[in-house]
Amino acid sequence: GGSQKVPQSDDSAGVLTLRNHGVFAEYFPAGHMPFLMDVLTHPQMLALQRMCLGAEEIYFDHNQLLTRPPGYVGGGWHSHKIGGGYDDVGMTDPESYRRQPNTNLTICYPDGFEAEDDAGLKIIRGSHLFRDPVGCRSPDDDTMVRGWLEGKMHPVTGEPLVIDHLSLSPGSIVCCLSHGAHGVSPKAPDRSTRWSTLYCYKKADYETGLVLPSHAIPPA
């Protein structure tokens, strides 16, 4: 299943309680499939997270299914908040960004996907340094280009920020920091389901040593 299909706005039917205790496979597939748990705790996966987050001490945050069926209409542009006072506080440099708490979204695609009409991931490289989860939301590419993207330059390369429509071979993964703007392309009705699972890890604030609360139950 796809985790966004599960009702989650309130706990009127106990859905939120069930989700937070790992009962729904959509919101903690590693707790239901030993292979996915092996991936979550594999030394190579942990080494990848330490490299991406630039920290020796890393922490599990959450794991969920992000499958996309034929006819999926696509997902709008957005990024994810970190908390701890580091959201919507303006652009920063890479070194300062490395010192703040962060979360690394790691999405695994066993079958890969094409750039067009295949529920493929699209990202904007360098957008994480703007730390703007409220401002970078947009329903489609055109609105994003005419709005949030207009006039923005990559803080490191000096090149204009652009949308990158990824095309990935089977067995690929993508890592994206929480503040990185990303969206999902539509899925044509005549294509097969796009399977994927998300592993999220995080690190502490270098200044305070504090670790923000997890979004899911611990793997134990």
Give an account of the 3D structure.
The protein is α+β, with helices and mostly antiparallel strands. 17% of the residues lie in helices and 18% in strands. The strands form 2 sheets. The chain has a 4-stranded antiparallel β-sheet, covered by helices on one side. Strands 2-7-4-5 form a 4-stranded antiparallel β-sheet, with no helix packed on it. It is globular and about 45 Å long. The mean pLDDT is 91.
In the predicted model, the low-confidence regions spanning at least 5 consecutive residues are none
Q: What is the overall shape?
A: globular
Number of helices: 5
What is the beta-strand fraction?
15-25%
Mean pLDDT over the full residue set = 91
| SSE class | alpha+beta
Largest sheet: 4 strands, antiparallel
Q: What separation lies between the terminal Cα atoms?
A: 23 Å
Radius of gyration: 17 Å
Following the backbone from N to C, one meets helices and strands in this order, namely HHHEEHEEHEEEE
The helix fraction, in percent, is: 10-25%
Q: How many E strands?
A: 8
- The spatial strand order of the largest sheet comes to 1-8-3-6
Keywords, separated by commas or semicolons:
220 residues; alpha+beta; four-stranded antiparallel sheet; 8 strands; 17% helix; globular
List the helices and strands and how they pair.
Blueprint: H1 15-20, H2 34-41, H3 43-53, E1 59-65, E2 75-78, H4 94-99, E3 102-109, E4 121-123, H5 141-146, E5 164-165, E6 172-177, E7 182-184, E8 197-203
Antiparallel strand pairs: 1-8, 2-7, 3-6, 3-8, 4-5, 4-7
Short description:
This protein has 220 residues and is α+β, with helices and mostly antiparallel strands. It has five helices and eight strands, in the order H-H-H-E-E-H-E-E-H-E-E-E-E.
